[in-house]
Amino acid sequence: AEAPFITAETDTGEIALTHAEFFGRVAAIAHLLRNEYGIQKGDAIAILGANSAEWAIAFMAIQALGGVAQAWNGWWAGEEIRWAADFCAPRLLLADGPRLARLQSEPSVPVLRLESLLHLSDVQAAELPEADIDEDDDALVLFTSGTSGRPKGVIHSHLNVTSALMLGFFHGARVAALHPP
Fold first, then answer.
1. Structure-derived torsion over alpha carbons of residues 60, 170, 2, 65, reported in degrees to the nearest 10
2. CA gap 57, 22 in Å, rounded
3. Which of 31, 144, 146, 171 is the one with CA 20 to 30 A from 87?
4. 172 CB-near residues (< 8 Å, 6+ apart)
5. Residue 21, number of CB atoms within 10 A of its CB
6. Contacts of 106 by beta carbon, 8 Å cutoff, 6+ apart
7. How many CB atoms neighbour CB 52 within 10 A?
8. pLDDT tens digits along 103-157
């Protein structure tokens, strides 16, 4: 049996997902975003939630479509979330319940609950949808802290994201080599 890759909390307890199950859910959500919400390459989709398996699934599905993930700050208050929805105008907001509760009213963009992704993705997609993605295409928007005013969105390409991941892997390997168990 394949070892668990990631665990997720659900309303019925904790579940462990293997690599195959995780990426099967990513493919299923990517198909859902494309087929049900019309998400296409270059479309902005905001993610607002705590660190979770659902957040990771959402991010990977957006990337697989060539979408641009706007990683909104999970600590933002209701007014800041509303400002981001109006200013950034994503095609869709993927948010968890605690962050949506801060709004106290409906946001100006369509919402899909992050918590529902584990249930919506029970349908297994055979593979990821086709998408023509170039390393220089926009992939991610991260926001500054906003200490001198409103937060500013910083756009990163697929190459930026890949380079940051590789740096993390190499740094981890270096630390492990310098401090073996």
1. 10
2. 7
3. 31
4. none
5. 17
6. none
7. 18
8. 988 888 999 999 888 777 655 566 889 999 999 999 999 998 878 888 899 999 9
Amino acid sitting at position 115:
E
Residue 108 makes CB contacts below 8 A (sequence gap 6+) with 82, 85, 86
Asked whether the beta carbons of 96 and 117 are under 8 A apart, the reply is no
Region of residue 73 (phi > 0: left; psi between -120 and 50: alpha; otherwise: beta): beta
Residue-wise pLDDT for 45-60, tens only, equals: 999 999 998 999 999 9
Quote the CA–CA distance of 125 and 22 in Å, as a whole number: 11
Structure tokens at 57: 């699934």
Residue 10 CB-half CA count within 13 A: 12
With vertex at residue 43, the alpha carbon angle to CA 40 and CA 49, rounded to the nearest 5 degrees, is 115
Q: pTM here? A: 0.89
